[in-house]
Amino acid sequence: MKTFTKVVVLTTTLALAACAKSPFDRSGNGAGAGAGSLDNGGISSSALDANSPAYFNQTIGDTVLFAVDQSTINDTARATLSQQANWLNNNTTYSAIVEGHADEQGTREYNLALGARRAAAARDYLVANGVADNRLRTVTFGKERPLAVCSTEECYAKNRRAVTVISAGVGS
């Protein structure tokens, strides 16, 4: 009988733990062009230091989106990248890695190449706007790191992106 009681208590505990709310936001926030993907736990952008990476992510936005099979910078992306360049030019102790991503349609090889073109396009825009090229690196993930796993156009659009990831130190 002791074993049965232990099993019931353990099962009840596991069931209650499964019902608990996760402390992490998994809402996929940051899907819009220029929308940052960092959840600052309810901290408003006005409370953040304008020179912090958190400010960059939340207020400026680390993500720009692309059209299907394109690596051309559109007007919305241009506005976000201009703000990113301004922030990077004012915060020269930071460097960045520009990640290129694609949706799950197409072959792995094609999407890796497309992600590379998207990362390069965003990097080139930042360099053209005064960011020293030794502070920027690019990497492509193609379709390997989707923001959302899905099968609708609205969802695919979230994965066609370039993400600027801030890191400490020049060339780190």
Structure description:
The protein is of the alpha+beta class. The protein has a single domain, classed as 60s Ribosomal Protein L30, Chain: A, CATH 3.30.1330.60. Strands 1-4-2-3 form a four-stranded mixed β-sheet. Helix 3 packs across helix 4. It starts with a helix and ends with a strand. It is a lipid-anchor.
Q: What do we call the CATH topology?
A: 60s Ribosomal Protein L30, Chain: A
Could you give the distance between the termini? Answer: 60 Å
Mean pLDDT: 81
Principal-axis shape: globular
For this structure, what is the CATH class? Alpha Beta
Q: Proportion of β residues?
A: 15-25%
SSE string: HHEHEHEHE
**Which CATH architecture would you pick?**
2-Layer Sandwich
Most strands sheet = 4 strands, mixed
Number of strands: 4
* Percent range of helical residues: 40-55%
Quaternary form? single chain
Family: Belongs to the Pal lipoprotein family.
InterPro entries: Bact_OuterMem_StrucFunc, OMP_bac, OmpA-like, OmpA-like_sf, Pal, Pal_lipo_C
Protein name: Peptidoglycan-associated lipoprotein
Subcellular location: Cell outer membrane
Task: Describe the protein's topology.
Elements: H1 2-19, H2 53-60, E1 63-65, H3 75-90, E2 94-101, H4 108-128, E3 136-142, H5 153-159, E4 161-168
Parallel strand pairs: 2-3
Antiparallel strand pairs: 1-4, 2-4
Helix pairs in contact: 3-4
